[in-house]
Write a structure and sequence with these properties.
With 285 residues, the chain is α/β, with parallel strands linked by helices. It has eleven helices and nine strands. Helix 8 links the parallel strand 5 and strand 6.
């Protein structure tokens, strides 16, 4: 009797390094012209998870030789005040990328704030123009987590074309853009959400499953087709993803761990986009 084939563990750390390695020469060339790529991160409020994410991004910038400007605003900040800060960053030639940490406090119009970000500095693909460019496969800076998911699939040479991809989640910065990116790779894509009926049956039909719902251990073993590729884009309290890893790992053909899966590749994609934005903006001046 043949032994069951062990799943491929889709470790994101080597994928992240493969994205960052080519950036050193780009950063050196920019430095020779007196340019240091700079990412501005905006944190509104005191959400501890968001603060951790922003700190991680700042540390990653420093390790690569990218400047990081952190702007922390009080929870009571208005939409107008937040947009005014974004406009200042848009007009600052030393800033090449702008990242507004999601989520913002509920009284802020997050979409209006995202739309205030210059398309040239939208390194996380959060604007409607960035989304539209992504839909047509022409985004210079697609949303970073979707870009990370595609980078993992490419690094491990996992086939996308012709496969049925099931995306659980429809957020405008994760579920929707990754669905379009998979569609542009000739996958057949089903998008599931909170109103989807017979969710487990639909997920079970997926050759590729992307979990992006923000609910710990939401996806169970009984939902997974044997041999499916599972990409867990969730990160919840206790360092667990949206997939019940212990249950699903024995069934999967390939699976991302949490942590050390999609997360580090997302940060690497953000750094890559920031360096590329610095190159584009320097050429335009």
């Amino acid at each position: 009797m043949n032994a069951k084939k062990q799943p491929v563990i889709l470790n994101g750390l080597p994928v992240a390094e493969s994205l960052k390695e080519p950036l050193f020469s780009s950063i050196e060339k920019l430095a020779s012209r007196g340019i240091v790529p700079c990412l501005a991160t905006i944190l509104v409020g005191d959400d501890p998870s968001s603060a951790t994410y922003v700190k991680m991004k700042g540390n990653a910038c420093r390790r690569l030789g990218i400047d990081s400007k952190r702007i922390t605003l009080d929870t009571s900040t208005s939409t107008a005040a937040l947009i005014a800060v974004i406009e200042q960053l848009n007009n600052d030639p030393s800033i090449h990328g702008i990242l507004l940490q999601h989520p913002v406090p509920p009284h802020i119009d997050e979409r209006a704030a995202f739309e205030a970000i210059s398309i040239d500095k939208d390194v996380d693909g959060v604007t409607m123009m960035g989304f539209a460019q992504n839909a047509f496969g022409a985004a210079p800076y697609p949303s970073c987590t979707p870009a990370a998911i595609l980078a993992i699939l490419d690094y491990y040479q996992l086939k996308v074309e012709g496969k049925h991809a099931v995306v659980i989640g429809r957020s405008p910065i994760l579920g929707k853009p990754v669905s379009l990116m998979l569609l542009n790779r000739n996958a057949t894509v089903t998008i599931c959400h909170s109103k989807t009926e017979n969710l487990s049956d639909i997920v079970r039909s997926g050759d590729i499953v992307v979990a992006a719902v923000g609910r710990a251990k939401f996806v169970k073993a009984g939902w997974i087709k044997p041999g499916a590729v599972i990409l867990d884009a969730g990160y919840n309290a206790g360092n667990v993803g949206d997939v019940d890893y212990a249950e699903c790992e024995p069934i999967a053909g390939a699976i991302t761990p949490v942590p050390s899966g999609v997360g580090p590749v997302t940060i690497a994609a953000l750094l890559k986009h920031t360096v590329e934005a610095a190159e584009r903006l320097s050429m335009a001046r």
